[in-house]
Amino acid sequence: MKKIALSLFVALAIVSCKKSDDDATPQNVTVDFNFTHNWDGDAIENADFDVIQYTNAHGETLSLSKLVYLISDVTFTNANGEVFDAGDYTLIDVKEGELTFTPEIEIPEGTYTVSFTFGFDDEDNNMNHQDLNSADGGWNVPLILGGGYHYMRMEGKYLSAASPNEVNYQYHTIRAVDRDAQGTIITLTDTSFVVNLGQVTIGSTTNIEVKMNVAEWFKNPNTWDLTQLYQMLMPNYDAQIMMKGNGSNGVFSKGTVTQ
Amino acid sequence: MKYGIAFCVLFFTLISCNKDDGGGKYTATPLNLKIPAFFEENILPPIIPEDNPMSVEGVALGKKLFFDPILSANNTQSCADCHTPQTGFSDSRQFSIGIDGTAGTRNSMPLHNVAWNYDGKFFWDGRAGSLENQIFEPVTNPIEMANTWPNAVASLQNSTEYPTLFEDAFGTTTIDSTMVSKAIAQFMRTLITANSRFDKFQRGEIELTPSEANGLNVFLDESRGDCFHCHGNPLNPLWTDNIFHNNGLDQFFVDKGLSNVTGDPRDDGKFKTPSLRNLAFTAPYMHDGRFETLDDVINHYSEGLVYSETIDPLMKAVGDGGVQLSEEDKADLKAFLLSLSDPSFINNPDFQN
């Protein structure tokens, strides 16, 4: 009996060193996302940064020096309405080539409606995120500007007919904050938005391309006058609402899905 | 006998499930960094390389090496000569002077909270990829310590004290340059400053003066200072983004900074953002120490910005020279900035020779 017990123990010890990889039960899978960027179809790569080469809908020519944004709550909803949401987030840094994200959730293979949130909804925005506080010298937004976190930092320079000299711009999106003359916060409006990528069939290895057309941030429904709205946009409530309007209107789309 | 064999099989099987990271290697006395609670609550943990864990003996050795001129070619200059505790581990001279009297071309960077440099790029131009790598350079720089590493190591090896101290820290009396850099890096990681007036305010121990409080608002207000996009904010106690920017100092560059390292002309004139901690002790300011006072620095951002192709988009109203702060806002901003200085850091006996 002792021999049997000991043998079993040895066998279990050996087996415990290996992951079971021959289980017949279908495995849940992770899904990879790849974020690509373009200006009305022209791909934006690292070499395209810091070159004044893009013309927005209002007619200013501009460069990109920085394009970093926050994606959260990637959600998979199946035909039964069952929702799989990892609840995690990532920063996409275009110039630095940090363009991929694999949400920390495993889901059964199948067909899903896939969506994500641009920025943070209020629930996430009101939490303390050590990694984001540590990113970029602080991805968080100071309390006097409403607190929470940046959704996007797009920066660069522009030229216009009225201003032949290069002017810096900072197109920063955050939760909209309305303050009175004394600086007291009157209203906070969640300006994050959900991007619906439509239906995707998820297999054992699936990569979903998410395309951002940067030109759309300046286009629709608000033709963005960069000569007027080029800086100090964080405390500008109306500008933040307009940014949300443009961002949620054609900036993001589903690209190639590879299995 | 059969049971004995079976037990042996079981023993080795279980052992084989774990990495053997002991292997009879020497282990010095582990040392946990004293991480300020506010840091722990709000930012990521410090960077401690797996191959250079902190130890009591390593830190003690690193401290001794930091203050010892033995690493220089003629035994006249230590790390601390250009990074003195009383100047926030910086140098009050615009340019530090090497062992043969030659001046450098950049102001000595203050040393503190270096364990939280997440990108791991050190020097004004980021040319060192880790703290340990950074330490290699001053020893052999011809206008600094002007030594060779074989010579520096020989000096240590021939000393009466160091072989034993290296044995205590690393388990061997045979010294090499890697161990020297590791020990100094360990000491440098202990240089933590988190007890300024503003830290005390954050901890609820004191109130800011009205001037300091308004200065903080100027610092954070996009329409006034907007300093926070590069220098952090109250939730990031490092007060730097540790990133490289062209902050509008010059139209043309004598020193190209980051682009000397990357080779990318888009990086011309970019230098690492310094932390705003301990400014009361670290004058002069900027990578080339061109500003003697904090007033000079504030005036630069308010009225002195100069356009160049690579100027950072965060610099506002460049065509007007800057954001044109009022005199009151300037004074208040200065008061706030000085509230980030920590006298207990420069007087900490653990950091003195």
SSE topology:
The complex is a heterodimer of chains A (259) and B (353).
Chain A lengths: L1 H14 L15 E9 L2 E2 L10 E2 L5 E2 L3 E13 L4 E3 L3 E5 L6 E2 L8 E9 L3 H4 L4 H5 L17 E8 L7 E7 L2 E4 L5 E5 L3 E10 L3 E8 L23 H11 L4 E7 L1
Parallel strand pairs in A: 1-15
Antiparallel strand pairs in A: 1-2, 1-8, 3-4, 4-10, 5-6, 5-7, 5-9, 5-10, 9-14, 10-11, 12-13, 15-16
Chain B lengths: L1 H15 L20 H6 L13 H12 L11 H4 L48 H10 L8 H10 L3 H9 L6 H13 L7 H6 L7 H11 L7 H4 L12 E2 L12 H5 L8 E2 L21 H10 L23 H12 L4 H4 L7
Antiparallel strand pairs in B: 1-2
Helix pairs in contact in B: 3-7, 3-8, 5-8, 10-14, 13-14
Written overview of the protein:
The complex is a heterodimer of chains A (about 260) and B (about 350). With about 260 residues, chain A is mostly beta strands. Chain A contains four helices and 16 strands. The radius of gyration of chain A is 23 Å and the shape is globular. With about 350 residues, chain B is mainly α. The N terminus of chain B is likely disordered. At the A-B interface, helix 1, helix 3, strand 10 and strand 11 of A face helix 1 and helix 11 of B.
